[in-house]
Write a structure and sequence with these properties.
Structural class: alpha/beta
Largest sheet: 6 strands, parallel
Family: Belongs to the LDH/MDH superfamily. MDH type 2 family.
Radius of gyration: 20 Å
Strand order of the largest sheet: 5-4-1-6-7-8
Shape: globular
Low-confidence stretches: 19-25
Distance between the termini: 51 Å
Domain Lactate/malate dehydrogenase N-terminal: 30-169
Strand content: 15-25%
Helix content: 40-55%
Bound molecules: 1,4-dihydronicotinamide adenine dinucleotide, oxaloacetate ion
Binding site for NAD(+): 59, 122, 146-148
Keywords: NAD, Oxidoreductase, Tricarboxylic acid cycle
Number of strands: 16
Active site: 204 (proton acceptor)
Mean pLDDT: 93
Order of helices and strands: EEEHEHEHEHEHEHEEEEEHHHHEEEH
């Protein structure tokens, strides 16, 4: 029997010109990730090839016409799994009945704005959208926050939607995880699908810690540690880490736009693994509510290695994941940055 459609919300989904300003003050195209993401969802990349979906797209009123244009394109693409499209600037209509919410919409930093100004704008957006999700989304709705500052936006959303279980609110660090897999595969000239179990710890920012201490590569003679195969600790502890940390900025510099394709694809990976499960023996990185594991302060949304089964994530525990002194410092410094962001976000609420 055919499955019932799942309603999937994507905020910031309009593809339109000239309203958002880039850091340089020039007008630029916005809705980049959303526009890349909606066809992937409609094709079954996020929830599987047998799961019908109804797409809900939300954007701000100046983007209404462009949002309707995206709806027209989705209809024209005749995706077999797509059972309906809601394109709206009304947050209640957008959130009603959704089982998955991908929060891409947010306020970008503009020239001359202080960090606190950007945080303040996003805190009010995420506070309002949290209330709408709490009241109108389906029970057990799974939330993925993509918009920056992703961890802290997710934390605000969690705080203002207290009836949504804290395990249901996450943020995207899978793009960083995939970037780390990509760097290792390029360096070793192996298939990216043969590399696994890197870890992104902490914030989706330049303080994140991409950790390869437990990562392996499938070879003809079994799984081998990445460290042994790379055999260059200076590169792994230096250039590799900074490349992954700075990759978003490098893409923006090259494209003059954010990493839309890879962010959209990674958002699909995040939700697909969360809903359908991670392969046996493989973990992925997700920004989740810290329970104090690995000495990370509880009450932050922090990226950990997780496995997923039956629609639930679990932080990878156990003796296998020893944290050496180098890693400890990096785990702590990204946690410190998140604590500061949390304090800043709370100061914007008062
Ligand atoms: N976590 C991650 O791995 C990554 C996060 N990002 C972040 O994702 C976000 C989206 O990136 P882009 O698509 O390039 O940005 P963008 O600026 O092109 O698009 C943002 C969209 O959000 C909309 N928006 C603004 N306020 C809204 C509101 N209150 N409700 C609904 N929609 C609203 C805008 O109108 C626009 O369509 C940014 O915050 C970016 O920094 C980008 C890449 C990776
Ligand atoms: O700062 C941005 O918008 C880009 C970003 O997060 C990334 O590509 O990782």
């Amino acid at each position: 029997m055919a499955k019932e459609p799942v309603r999937v919300l994507v905020t910031g989904a309009a593809d339109f010109n000239g309203v958002v300003e880039s850091g340089s003050g020039e007008a630029r195209r916005s809705g980049q990730i959303g526009y890349a993401l909606v066809p992937m969802i409609a094709r079954g990349v996020m929830l599987g090839p047998d799961q019908p979906v109804i797409l809900h797209m939300l954007d701000i009123p100046p983007a209404a016409e462009a949002l309707n244009g995206v709806k027209m394109e989705l209809v024209d693409a005749a995706f077999p799994l797509l059972k309906g499209v809601v394109a709206t600037t009304d947050v209640v209509e957008a959130c009603t009945g959704v089982g998955v919410a991908v929060m891409v919409g947010g306020f970008p930093r503009k020239e001359g704005m202080e960090r606190k100004d950007v945080m303040s704008k996003n805190v009010s957006i995420y506070k309002a959208q949290a209330s709408a999700l709490e009241k109108h989304a389906a029970a057990n709705c799974k939330v993925l926050v993509v918009a920056n500052p992703a961890n802290t936006n997710a934390l605000i959303l969690k705080e203002f939607a207290p009836s949504i279980p804290e395990k249901n609110v996450t943020c995207l660090t899978r793009l960083d995880h995939n970037r780390a897999l990509g760097q290792i595969s390029e360096r070793l000239n192996v298939q990216v699908s043969d590399v696994k179990n890197v870890i992104i710890w902490g914030n989706h920012s330049s303080t994140q810690y991409p950790d390869v201490n437990h990562a392996t590569v499938k070879t003809s003679s079994g799984e081998k540690p990445v460290r042994e195969l790379v055999a260059d600790d200076a590169w792994l502890n230096g250039e590799f880490i900074t490349t992954v940390q700075q990759r978003g900025a490098a893409i923006i510099k090259a494209r003059k736009l954010s990493s839309a394709l890879s962010a959209a694809s990674s958002a699909c990976d995040h939700i697909r693994d969360w809903v359908l499960g991670t392969p046996v023996g493989t973990w992925v990185s997700m920004g989740v509510y810290s329970d104090g594991s690995y000495g990370v302060p509880a009450g932050l949304i922090y990226s950990f290695p997780v496995t997923c089964k039956n629609g639930e994530w679990t932080i990878v525990q156990g003796n296998g994941l020893g944290i050496d002194e180098f890693s400890r410092k990096k785990l702590d410094s990204t946690a410190e940055e998140l604590s500061e962001e949390k304090a800043l976000a709370y100061s914007c609420l008062t």
